[in-house]
Structures
1.
Amino acid sequence: MDLTTSYLGLRLRNPLVASAGPLSQTVDGVRSLAAAGVGAVVMYSLFEEQVRRQRMLDADLAERHEESFPEALSYFPAIDTGAPGVADRYVALVERAASAVDVPVIASINGSSLGGWVTIARQLADAGAAAIELNIYFVPGELSITGAEVEQRHLDIVGAVRAAVPVPIAVKLSPYFSSPGNMALRLVEAGADGLVLFNRFLQPDVDIETLTVKPSVALSTRFEGRLPRTWIAALARHTPASLAATSGVEEAADVIRYLLAGADVVMTTSALVRHGAGYGRTLVAGLEDWMRRRNYRRVEDFRGLLAVPADAADGSSYLRAGYVAALENARRIYGSLRY
């Protein structure tokens, strides 16, 4: 049975990928994920704010040094605290992880502006990252920002990183564009080799007793897989870029659903956090068992069977037809209920 797949031009032993999360914060964690049989590992994300904070601390230290020892600047123009910065530590971790396992290690950068992404991306490529995932997390809280400006910021980031590094890049994008499909295609035109659908925006919760807003993080649920599957199915036959699915993976059946929609790989963190890194073996085994029962010998034999056909005259009408059919089905099921 052949489970191999291609993602970002990389040959993977199977389509299950450990996405960015807490399990890839150490070399041992990456080893455990690789040992569990995943096809690739996306490192936890390096956040733009972490790098910016480090730079502010370094600048403050340099300023205080100048005020205290101005005569020493000609001899010691640079301040060395003796400790590597947050970006340096991340780059070193990627380098060690890439050397420790026999599956591709993909670096992840999380931010919303150009910032120092280009420099860090170069360092990560040099450190041995097989690819770089741009986790663009931008919530336009400034109400004067237009949709066009939001889109251009994404395109600028992709274009800048593409021009700077030789390794493949993937973009983890949000579903909250006015036309997600068109935005996806424009990101590919800007230089993205792959798309990760979708980033999950984490909304805060409200504590009604303390009257405070609390940041909160919740693991994804199976229901959340429906939105990314819809857009993967819409894009699969209309772009040469790799498509990665993320969110809503709990069982092998969820992996299979994504592959039927047209995903090249299926990423998960929540299931691995809930059940442990070793749960990767369970997901891969479930995929193999289903393929065996359906007499599929290769993943390619069924990938994209439920994608929107390439010759569909009107993709919007095709997707709306599914919407109408779902509502009619719901009417039949729930319309007969009596209260």
2.
Amino acid sequence: MKLSFPIVPTARTAWLAALAAPIAIVIAAAAPGAWVIAPAAGVALLAVALLDGMLAGRMAEWRILVPTDAEVGESFEVLAMAEFAGRSARSPLEVALATDPRLGEAGAVRFVALCDPATGAWEGKTTLTPSRRGTAAVTRVWLRWAGPLGLGARQASHALDRMVRVWPDLAPVRSPELQTFLRDAQFGLIARRIRGEGTQFEALSEYEPGMDRRRIDWKASARHTRLYARENESERNNQIVFAFDCGQAMCEPVGGLPRIDRAVTAALTASYVALKGGDRVSLFGFARRPELSTPFVSDSRNFHRLQRAAAGLDYNAEEPNFTLALATLAARLQRRSLVVLFSDFTDPTGAELMIEGVGRLVERHLVLFVTMEDEDLAELSAAEPGTLDALATAVTADTLLRQRALVLQRLRQMGVDIIEAPWDRIGYRLIDRYLEIKRSEAIG
């Protein structure tokens, strides 16, 4: 891409002019007739800066390479490349980019490009880490490089139209640990039937000592005059719904990312395992009203549909409407399902509404409530109070933790299974609990 680059003075020129001002005042006071020296020196400085900028060299081509896709919380590189015509620039090439706040808190990033002596090309890169999902734009670039004396520089800005689609983090899905687990566990890459468990009849086999006597098929044994036992296979085609509270509490950061993003990563990881196990998965998101409801997806080859749908979950600075959302979800489900609800709560009133909505789901479905431990509250509660303010803070934090524990206890008494763990462990805890539920045939 070719552009014209005007010459501008550098910060060094400005500092020299600022330092010369007191000298000019002294000259004017000591020798009024020599006042012309000050403006002449200023003009000379500008002339030198202009000449220095001309010697900086002319850029022939430049490129900014930005990836089109990234994952929240995962770093990616932005590359700047340039070529100079004729005499190459001697100073580093300064690059500044205007970005969406999702890619940087300040909405801008700066870095330098250096010359590669082997190729004569100038290259520089920087690392960005998306903090939220969505489409983030890189809207403008500024390029600047100074002359040999550092007094004059060439500079230009140009509008960019580079969009980065920030997807949910799938690093746990690609992790070697999970892939090894899927190959070796009962839900491997090639799904095979699991005999000896479950409720669906698979075959008859001759009874051997040590087998469960309750599986003896007495009618078949009478016909063959030998003992035969029923072999069952683990039930498949279960319905799993991952429901996300996208309200204010779930938008609070934990470990550097919003809680909702941590929940999405855990849910997608468990979804991948469930699809490998032959079950059907759906996503449901809500805040003040239901915002996302996907059809049930089967087969791991359709996992990308869940990923794309999860990327559309928005951040809402409002309290969720559990009554409307969970009633809508209950009306949608036509058969018994496992509902995995990711949520958090900050006040007893909101918790009461959540408990009431969950109570309706428990009547027909198996509910698993997933929440992340509040490490900040735990630290405040456990801290040694040295002042009255610190004591008040510790008492308040302890009260909130007790209220939280009371709400979770009420959910357990209703028959809701609970997972409360640090954000970096909920994904694998969720997978373990899902496999336990599947083995116990509690869904169907």
